[in-house]
Design brief:
The chain is an alpha/beta fold. The chain has 2 domains: 272 residues, no CATH class; 176 residues, Rossmann fold (3-Layer(aba) Sandwich), CATH 3.40.50. The protein has 14 helices and 11 strands. The strands form 2 sheets. A 6-stranded mixed β-sheet has the order 2-3-1-4-5-6, covered by helices on one side. A 5-stranded parallel β-sheet has the order 8-7-9-10-11, sandwiched between helices. Helix 6 links the parallel strand 7 and strand 8. The chain is elongated, with a radius of gyration of 24 Å. The protein binds 2-acetamido-2-deoxy-beta-D-glucopyranose (2 copies). The site of one 2-acetamido-2-deoxy-beta-D-glucopyranose (NAG) has 7 residues, from loops. The site of one 2-acetamido-2-deoxy-beta-D-glucopyranose has 4 residues, from loops. It is found in: Endoplasmic reticulum membrane. Pathway: Protein modification; protein glycosylation.
Length: 481
């Protein structure tokens, strides 16, 4: 769990005011960096290059304001609703702990000072999914406060949120699921242009093959993960040459000292990118299996013009530029059948090139993908657009202002105007299945692995019971208020 989680953005704080935006960006990329493979996989030691440590980009550019024409909020700060960032290190503002935000329809105060937790005007508390622990939450929960969940990272960081009682603690969510209130599904895809990045000519890839390099690249340094990806890759390696450079299943060394040194060569390093772009296929296995959980493992090979051999979101096809741009591991009966197909494509250039046709003009045919990119208001790697942390707090700010107004009208009309309907998160805002073996069945697992999976289940059960117990206590406490 090195380098993960809150604190890194804060530590990176620049010392002068005009770089406020850079910090807001820093927080965004911090969240994103951890998402590279879920928390617990932040850059440290040899892990570094397996991450997108920092998304590069123009550093100081335009303003990041959400203030819309609909915002004519003239209230003083003292009259505004307060939103509390419970996970203070995500607080996307600098300097200070409190700031006024002017959002598309109204304004709020945002703070990371937990002293505000019981304040009458504190209308919403924003939690970070990865470090959310029910027993650390501000209890008892106050009836006038909503809870918001920000969780862009891997579901493996907190399976509690995949349990119905876990997710229903929250009123609003920003997760990788498209069903979420504020979806972050395409957080690793900067835009359509990223997909159109040119591929290395096939002749060069073939020349690389003749020099003894395999058709398939594997690059993974976080080995023991819920998706159990290494078990599959180990099996695949029996049938086709897979060059593996990470800590997991390593069978080859990177070609230069500079690339091996993870303190200099990050995942965005041009030399590194050029190196991996020579491979025809990249094994792209997410660390957890869940609908709409897609990371740079998927998008980066597409950007580079390698074909992802993918396992992760079962719904990944919905987001692909066309129907022929990735190879899904689960379309095959097993590693041997997959290897056979990859070998066929390796030897048949025309068939292989069909997987890169989406890079041609007009090649991105998926209107849902294009519309989703067009619609989202935050940017990836783009300082001219606000980031999704600021976007989410504004989303909540507007919701809370609307709710406060509706409640006032409800009171004023003595109930003739209906009270605002409650809004509660749904299991599909996260809803990830429990981990299963990456290859074979539970019965095939060795004693040690099986114990791991049983322990994991027991731990999950404990958490659910804890939550149920806690909810009971919470309601009991409320009765006495
Ligand atoms: C992909 O195939 C599905 C059905 O197989 C179809 O509904 C969809 O329109 C196709 N998408 C594109 C972009 O061709
Ligand atoms: C917030 O969610 C809780 C359940 O966790 C629910 O009881 C409450 O009514 C919701 N509040 C609003 C304002 O929607």
């Amino acid at each position: 769990m090195c380098g993960r989680g809150p604190g890194r953005a804060a530590r990176r704080r620049p010392a002068c005011l005009w770089v406020t935006l850079a910090l807001a960006w820093g927080a965004g990329s911090r969240a994103g960096a951890a998402a590279g493979d879920g928390g617990g996989e932040a850059p440290c030691g040899a892990e570094g290059w397996a991450q997108a440590a920092v998304r590069p980009g123009p550093v100081f550019a335009a303003a990041a304001s959400y203030r819309g024409p609909g915002n004519d909020d003239a209230r003083s700060n003292k009259a505004l609703p307060i939103l509390l960032w419970w996970s203070g290190s995500l607080f996307p503002h600098f300097p200070g702990d409190t700031e006024r935000i002017d959002c598309p329809r109204g304004s709020c105060l945002v703070t990371r000072s937990r002293r505000a937790a019981r304040h009458r005007r504190t209308k919403a508390i924003i939690f970070y999914g990865t470090d959310f622990r029910a027993y650390e939450a501000p209890l008892p929960r106050l009836p006038h406060q909503t809870w918001a969940l920000f969780h862009e990272e891997s579901p493996m960081n907190n399976y509690l949120l995949s349990h119905p009682p876990g997710i229903r603690l929250f009123n609003y969510t920003a997760t990788f699921r498209r069903e979420s209130d504020y979806p972050l599904t395409l957080q690793w895809l900067p835009g359509p242009g990223y997909l159109r990045g040119p591929a290395l000519p096939l002749a060069e890839k073939d020349a690389w093959r003749r020099r003894g390099y395999g058709p398939v690249l594997y690059m993974q340094s976080h080995c023991d993960v819920p998706s159990d990806r290494d078990r599959y890759v180990r099996e695949l390696m029996k049938y086709i040459q897979v060059d593996s450079y990470g800590k997991c299943l390593r069978n080859r060394e990177l070609p230069s000292e500079r690339l091996r040194d993870t303190s200099t060569a990050t995942a965005e390093d041009p030399e590194f990118m050029a190196f991996i772009a020579r491979y025809k296929f990249h094994l792209a296995l997410e660390n957890a299996i869940c609908n709409d959980y897609m990371t740079e493992k998927l998008w980066r090979p597409m950007h580079l013009g390698a074909v992802p051999v993918y396992r992760g979101s079962p719904a990944v096809r919905d987001w692909m530029p066309n129907n022929f741009s990735i190879i899904l591991i689960d379309d095959f009966d097993g590693p041997q059948e997959l290897a056979k197909y990859l070998d066929f494509l390796d030897k048949n250039g025309d068939e292989y090139m069909k997987y890169l046709e989406y890079k041609n003009p007009g090649g991105i045919q998926n209107q849902f993908l294009l519309d989703s990119l067009e619609r989202r208001e935050w940017g990836v790697n783009d300082m001219t657009l606000p980031n999704y942390l600021n976007g989410f707090e504004c989303f909540i700010c507007d919701r809370e202002n609307t709710r406060v107004k509706a409640e006032q009208e409800h009171k004023k009309s003595r109930g003739k105007t209906p009270a605002p309907a409650p809004h509660v998160a749904h299991v599909q805002h996260m809803g990830c299945p429990m981990p299963t073996p990456g290859f074979g069945s539970i019965e095939d697992l060795s004693g040690e692995d099986r114990k791991d999976s049983t322990n994991a289940e027991a731990a999950q059960l404990d958490i659910v019971l804890e939550i149920l117990e806690w909810i009971k206590t919470d309601y009991d406490a409320l009765k006495h208020l």
